[in-house]
Structure to design on (258 residues):
């Protein structure tokens, strides 16, 4: 894992956009997209670069991480709607290049279809991830199998309360989701974990410096050969080895890239 601690959320968004831009400019790309608040700054930066510098997504495809079960795609808070509203409708992805899970389908069949469609696209090149306050990535809640594939999961009370801000009230937050599994996510070639704000500090510390354990699903990233963790200073505030992370970043060879 490469741990990059930056002063603020804008720096995280800028660096994440740099990594994605480099991938897009290197050829046809498959991006893995998270929803939620954390990647919004990155998406805004990518939209700016599309408008200002002509950064193009015309040769790219995208796969979403997860979806609420029971919300039709047309619901404003379905991840199908959110990602289009916040990002993909504002750049030049080809029609049908943005893939998501159908929360209204029979879950087992939909999960199998989705894993097969990611494989058919050649796998994900760069996967953007946020982290839940309970250490989830995608919607792999604590005790998710580290080898799990896309499947239905039940949200914890904590995650439903965290996400209630997007709905009229807690009762409207679905209890079930379809999510790429930890095994599915770990097949992406480059994982980009973004962490913003003090509320994520405990989960980030457990994921990065704790043991690999299902109690903190994001700790499964320690088993992946290419993970970049981009944190603002509050999200990094519970890490024990910040001095070393700053030291290594200061000595990063210019040729190395992320
Ligand atoms: C959403 C997702 C979740 C979020 C996480 C953090 O597609 O996969 O793991 O990344 O719940 O959410 P925010 O960014 O809203 O704090």
């Amino acid at each position: 894992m490469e741990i990059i601690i930056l002063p603020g959320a804008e720096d995280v968004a800028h660096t994440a956009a740099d990594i994605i831009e480099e991938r897009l400019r290197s050829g046809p790309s498959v991006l893995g997209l998270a929803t939620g608040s954390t990647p919004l700054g990155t998406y805004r930066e990518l939209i700016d670069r599309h408008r200002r510098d002509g950064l193009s997504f015309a040769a790219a495809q995208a796969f979403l991480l997860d979806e609420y079960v029971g919300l039709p795609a047309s619901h404003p808070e379905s991840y199908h709607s959110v990602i289009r509203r916040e990002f993909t409708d504002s750049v030049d992805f080809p029609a049908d290049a943005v893939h998501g899970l159908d929360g209204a389908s029979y879950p087992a069949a939909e999960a199998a279809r989705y894993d097969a469609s990611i494989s058919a696209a050649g796998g994900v090149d760069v996967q953007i991830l946020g982290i839940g306050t309970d250490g989830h990535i995608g919607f792999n809640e604590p005790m998710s199998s580290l080898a799990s594939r896309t499947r239905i999961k039940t949200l914890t009370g904590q995650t439903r309360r965290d996400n209630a801000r997007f709905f009229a009230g807690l009762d409207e937050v679905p209890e079930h989701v379809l999510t790429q599994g930890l095994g599915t996510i770990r097949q992406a070639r480059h994982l980009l974990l973004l962490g913003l704000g003090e509320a994520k500090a405990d989960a980030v510390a457990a994921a990065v410096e704790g043991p690999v354990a299902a109690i903190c699903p994001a700790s499964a990233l320690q088993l992946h050969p290419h993970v970049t963790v981009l944190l603002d200073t509050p999200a990094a505030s519970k890490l024990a080895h910040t001095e070393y992370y700053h030291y290594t970043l200061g000595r990063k060879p210019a040729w190395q890239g992320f």
About this structure: The chain has eight helices and ten strands. The helical segments are 9-25, 40-53, 79-86, 107-120, 157-163, 182-185, 201-209, 242-250.
